[in-house]
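We modelled each protein-ligand pair independently. The example shown here corresponds to the zinc ion entry; the chain sequence is given first, followed by the ligand as SMILES.
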Amino acid sequence: METKSQNSLLNRIQVTSGVNVEDLECIICTNLLWKPIACNNCDGLYCSECIKSWLVQSPGNCPQCQNYAERRCSPFVIKQLAKLQFACINQPNGCPEIIGYEALDKHEIECGYKLQQCSGCHSPLLKKELAKHQNNCGSIRLTCSECNVSYFRRDASSHTENTCLREQLRQFRQDSATYKQQQEEMINRLTTQLEQQKVDIQTHEKRIEELSQELKQLPKKYTRK
Ligand SMILES: [Zn+2]
Ligand SMILES: [Zn+2]
Ligand SMILES: [Zn+2]
Ligand SMILES: [Zn+2]
Ligand SMILES: [Zn+2]
């Protein structure tokens, strides 16, 4: 809503219901007020977004009175805005809806004439046609529930039962080979540990032998009677 573009709210008004639209323009963006709030000191009306970014640039400074104090927009202004009706922003794509000010936001989020991109071929498509397209688009990736291999939908016919079974066999062989390798690694690890323990035991035994030799060679007077 920041510029007066082709799609601006002002350009899309279809029904004014006698409301004087010029009184409902934002001083900052000069477009129709969107979610307006007001300055309590000068009664200036601004789109919430417009005054928010304005105040980031010059804090506390109202565009009109230089002394900004926020208050809620008067019910009168809200009522005036509510009388206006608009063409949907997606009218150029074929949306026929004429929507009231307060319902506009919600409609344009849900509008079926919004352009979206196919996740496969990236073509722009109307939101309401996207699901149907994506259910048929050849560039969408599919994943086989049997073998977990993924392929483009357009290549689905080459993933035959035969191909799938061969892939499952290949995976099974690979898994078996991995399992076997893990088992071998574990056996090797345990064997190494066992060897180390044997060495430790031998070292201990040797030390015991040495100590008992030393004990025998001690003078008699240190031995107990
Ligand atoms: Zn504005
Ligand atoms: Zn002010
Ligand atoms: Zn629409
Ligand atoms: Zn597609
Ligand atoms: Zn498969």
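The two ends are 108 Å apart (CA to CA).
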